[in-house]
């Protein structure tokens, strides 16, 4: 089979995994160790990730994201690669993946490799093949770029240790927010085994960080993904699972992937447009939980869902109008962080600038605060929203952004 | 006052600006009296006005300039905006007079310089992302790139660190960068045609780009905000964008409308080792019991936890030690007493003459009860009905191990072992025979010692804890 054809099949098989991060690993470069010395290997990582391209689906292309093979023994209904699907199958050799990664990397197309695989023969066999690619890149080619490996549930701990030695990040997907959903749609997948593997990864990651002599292990941590809209879990259940995973396994990220139509889909699942707005709101809510001190119960609506029309912070503020308007010249950092439109950078600028001057609307504008969203909730020395505005029943309608077709226009 | 004229060598001449600015600052020259220009700029209105500043005359160092200003200026000075030199000098004067001037984020000059620096940082970042090398026949690589600001010199070292073993050139309309494997040099600008060699790998890259795109989730605006159109003409994959968008609707419809196909027959199955005996322990062994505990669903605590944490230790241990419940570390490791309280217990036990490997250690409740809080989990005490739901497991562990003495640490364990609510402070420190004939000793939980606020109380209570454990040590060899 032609390489480009194989690549098309095995990239198509990998694209439903939303993870794309290439940040947060240790710093490496391939320049000479001392001036005038010999260059070593290929590649670098410098903390921040780089998105080398964007597809028309708006997603970043940072890593060469492929499967080693899309043959799979599992029959997870939501998955394009499930055993009972009639999609065309292909398989890369270890050398093919290594060469492709290096060829793309040298042309600055990618930051590195994100390798996953369908499960063939056994968990250990599959994991071993995946690890062999990373090992060859690192040891045979001195590759210093980013490597993300998918972890196969219940693979031998020794293989996991080897994976962590070469990978910058390891991940294992929970796929569905509840165990009931999983046992319904992915009978072979064991949520308990996924958790045990996450626990094992956390243990090794912390050990490697704490002890200088411990072997390197996945310095950019671990992540997971949940599919949104394939089962009937609500947003609260999804976010509770996220909160549990962040707290329990110190995940760097939980990715949310709107369930999307796939070729040769199962007749037992909804065949409709992916819930992209719901996915977007979940990312916003996830962010609010991690960086703005909101709890799951504060940000979800009474029916267990997020408001699709408004960002979750704005929706929260509208449910708590009694706390506003806030005096921008006096409010605490925590209060300002809970104001619609004010992000962490803007809040720090406000706190810093108000030591020099009493802030006016003009000042907020200069500091790039989104006034349309923030002003109904803020008081400055030259602006105070009328109580009637804050109390008005139509405030929500006025704040809902005008409908905009996401897909529109070149 | 005669206006001063500063001529910088080129648009990215940050060093030249720094030297001139330092000299002007020392002379307290007003920003309005300085004319900044870049070498060979034709048609300067003030070409004949003013006198040149000799940037080499470097007077005694002036006031120390905050690092934050240097970082801001180094970026803002690379912007294509012609007023950047003047803006940065104005800000420098203010920072020299008042070190915290930059903290006023609402100040117009600070806000402007911040915006310029941000635009430059973004442009430089996009350069690291969107430079595309083409392989030439001789093993070297070349790229054509069109930055918006004067970022080539500042960004080229990134490519040296990344591609040190390659030979490459990055050509731009204004300047060009060359790396021969040892040295980075800069030269004149070039033309697009200079880096147009054919590279067969671009077709493979385009195949990847087309396949990684999901037509069912078209979001063109999101793509364009991160990859603005101005970059497209130098990205080999961008040529595909219009057709991918045009065909997306049709491709999605084909997927949603397609009638389900019959499931593939004889799908691959995992190979299971043939003839291997099923991993079953002796009935009624500890191994079997531990497996059963992991499957327990008698109360809701199992769901948020990783795994049940059964007891650990020899089946013929003469002493069983019971704690409250596994903690964060125990939940992760699947073993009891491996966290901070476990470490304290080990120390106290050793001091009392007990060695851990001769004890059977377990908990009253086998799953960790907690509340997630950011990256951590806050311990929550189990409720009475949760302790009760877990009681059969402890009873079976006791029946299997048949210890001479059960040490209950803390109120939860004491309740589980004694079968009734107990005030630890009153009951602790004496060995007692229970109605069922078994022998028990109540003491505090080591986590209690860790929570004590002052060191004095900690030392005192630790001593009492060791004393309690010494009472247990007498049972160690009572075979």
From TrEMBL, chain A:
Q: Which residues form a coiled coil?
A: none
Q: Name one Pfam family in it.
A: Radical_SAM
Does S-adenosyl-L-methionine appear among the keywords? yes
Highest taxon above the source species: Bacteria
InterPro entries in alphabetical order = Aldolase_TIM, DNA_rSAM_put, Elp3/MiaA/NifB-like_rSAM, Endo/Exo/Phosphatase_dom_1, rSAM, rSAM_sf, RuvA_2-like
One MF annotation (Gene Ontology) recorded for this entry? metal ion binding
Q: Which UniProt keywords apply?
A: Iron, Iron-sulfur, Metal-binding, S-adenosyl-L-methionine
Residues annotated as signal peptide: none
NCBIfam families listed in its UniProt record: rSAM_link_UDG
Which named protein is this?
DNA modification/repair radical SAM protein
Q: Which species expresses this protein natively?
A: Methylopila jiangsuensis
UniProtKB/TrEMBL annotation, chain B:
Per the UniProt record, the source organism is Methylopila jiangsuensis
- Report the protein name in the record: Type-4 uracil-DNA glycosylase
One annotated GO molecular function is:
metal ion binding
An example GO biological process term is:
DNA repair
* Ranges where the Uracil-DNA glycosylase-like domain occurs: 310-470
Spell out the NCBIfam families in the cross-references.
Answer: SAM_7_link_chp, UDG_fam4, UDG_fam_dom
Family according to the record: Belongs to the uracil-DNA glycosylase (UDG) superfamily. Type 4 (UDGa) family.
Keyword Transit peptide carried by entry? no
Tell me which UniProt keywords the record has, alphabetically: 4Fe-4S, DNA damage, DNA repair, Hydrolase, Iron, Iron-sulfur, Metal-binding
Q: Where is this region: Disordered?
A: 254-280
Q: Which domain of life is it from?
A: Bacteria
SUPFAM superfamilies on file: Uracil-DNA glycosylase-like
């Amino acid at each position: 089979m032609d390489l480009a054809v194989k690549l098309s099949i095995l990239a198509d098989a990998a694209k439903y995994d939303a993870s794309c991060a290439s940040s947060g690993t240790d710093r490496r470069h391939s320049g000479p160790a001392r001036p005038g010395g010999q260059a070593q290997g290929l590649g670098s990582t410098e903390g921040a990730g780089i998105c080398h391209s964007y597809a028309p689906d708006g997603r970043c292309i940072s890593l060469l994201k492929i499967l080693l093979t899309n043959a799979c023994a599992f029959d997870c209904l939501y998955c394009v690669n499930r055993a009972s699907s009639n999609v065309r199958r292909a398989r890369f050799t270890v050398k093919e993946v290594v060469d492709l990664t290096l060829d793309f990397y040298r042309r600055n197309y990618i930051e590195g490799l994100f390798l996953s695989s369908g499960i063939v023969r056994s968990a250990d066999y599959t994991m071993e093949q995946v690890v062999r690619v990373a090992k060859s890149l690192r040891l045979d080619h001195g590759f210093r770029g980013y490597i993300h490996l998918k972890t196969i549930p219940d693979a031998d701990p020794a293989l996991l240790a080897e994976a962590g030695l070469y990978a910058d990040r390891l991940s294992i997907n929970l796929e569905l927010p509840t165990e009931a959903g999983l046992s319904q749609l992915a009978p072979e997948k064991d949520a308990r085994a996924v958790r045990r593997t996450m626990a094992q990864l956390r243990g090794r990651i912390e050990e490697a960080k704490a002890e200088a002599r411990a072997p390197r292990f996945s310095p950019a941590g671990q992540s997971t993904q949940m599919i949104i809209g394939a089962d009937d879990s609500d947003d609260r259940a999804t976010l509770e699972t996220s909160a549990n995973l962040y707290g329990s396994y110190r995940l760097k990220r939980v990715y949310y992937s709107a369930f999307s139509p796939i070729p040769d889909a199962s007749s037992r699942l909804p065949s409709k447009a992916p819930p992209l707005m719901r996915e977007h709101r979940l990312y916003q809510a996830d962010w609010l939980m991690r960086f703005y001190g909101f709890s799951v119960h504060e940000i979800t609506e009474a029916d267990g869902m997020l408001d699709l029309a408004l960002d979750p912070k704005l929706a929260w503020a509208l449910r708590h109008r009694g706390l506003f308007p806030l005096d921008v010249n006096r409010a605490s950092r925590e209060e300002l962080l809970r104001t619609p439109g004010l992000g962490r950078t803007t809040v720090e600028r406000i706190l810093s600038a108000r030591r020099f001057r009493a802030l006016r609307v003009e000042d907020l504008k200069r500091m790039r605060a989104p006034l349309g969203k923030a002003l109904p909730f803020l008081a400055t020395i030259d602006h105070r929203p009328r109580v009637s505005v804050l109390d008005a029943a139509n405030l929500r309608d006025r704040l809902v952004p005008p409908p905009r077709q996401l897909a529109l226009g070149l | 006052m005669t206006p001063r004229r500063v001529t910088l060598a080129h648009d990215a001449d940050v060093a030249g600006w720094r030297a001139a600015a330092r000299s002007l600052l020392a002379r307290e020259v007003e920003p309005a009296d300085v004319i900044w220009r870049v070498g060979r700029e034709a048609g300067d209105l003030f070409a004949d006005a003013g006198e040149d500043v000799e940037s080499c005359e470097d007077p005694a160092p002036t006031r120390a300039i905050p690092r934050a200003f240097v970082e801001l200026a180094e970026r803002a000075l690379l912007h294509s905006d012609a007023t950047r030199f003047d803006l940065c000098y104005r800000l420098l004067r203010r920072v020299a007079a008042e070190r915290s001037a930059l903290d006023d984020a609402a100040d117009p000059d600070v806000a402007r310089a911040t915006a310029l620096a941000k635009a430059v940082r973004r442009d430089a970042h996009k350069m690291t992302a969107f430079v595309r090398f083409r392989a030439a026949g001789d093993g070297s690589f070349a790229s054509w790139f069109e930055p918006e600001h004067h970022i080539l010199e500042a960004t080229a070292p990134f490519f040296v660190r990344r591609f040190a073993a390659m030979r490459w050139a990055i050509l731009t309309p204004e300047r060009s960068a060359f790396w021969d494997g040892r040295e980075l040099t800069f030269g004149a600008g070039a033309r697009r045609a200079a880096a147009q060699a054919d590279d067969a790998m671009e077709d493979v890259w385009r195949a990847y780009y087309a396949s990684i795109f999901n037509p069912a989730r078209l979001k063109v605006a999101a793509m364009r905000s991160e990859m603005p159109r101005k970059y497209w003409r130098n990205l080999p994959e961008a040529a595909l964008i219009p057709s991918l968008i045009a065909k997306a609707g049709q491709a999605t419809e084909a997927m949603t409308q397609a009638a389900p196909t019959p499931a593939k027959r004889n799908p691959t199955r995992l190979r299971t080792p043939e003839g291997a005996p099923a991993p079953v322990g002796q009935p009624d062994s500890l191994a079997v019991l531990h497996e059963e505990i992991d499957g327990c669903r008698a109360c809701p605590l199992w769901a948020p936890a990783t795994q049940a944490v059964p007891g650990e230790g020899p089946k013929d241990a003469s002493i069983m030690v019971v704690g409250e419940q596994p903690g964060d570390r125990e939940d992760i490791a699947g073993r009891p007493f491996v966290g901070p309280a476990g470490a304290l217990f080990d120390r106290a036990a050793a001091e009392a003459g007990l060695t851990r490997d001769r004890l059977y250690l377990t908990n009253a409740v086998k799953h960790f009860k907690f509340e997630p809080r950011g990256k951590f989990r806050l311990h929550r005490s189990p409720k009475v009905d949760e302790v009760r739901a877990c009681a059969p497991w402890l009873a079976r562990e006791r029946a299997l191990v048949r210890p001479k003495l059960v040490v209950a640490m803390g109120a939860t364990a004491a309740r589980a072992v004694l079968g009734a609510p107990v005030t630890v402070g009153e009951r602790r420190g004496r060995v007692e025979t229970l109605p069922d004939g078994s022998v028990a000793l109540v003491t505090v939980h080591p986590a209690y010692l860790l929570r004590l606020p002052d060191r004095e109380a900690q030392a005192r209570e630790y001593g009492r804890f060791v004393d309690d454990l010494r009472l247990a040590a007498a049972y160690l060899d009572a075979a």
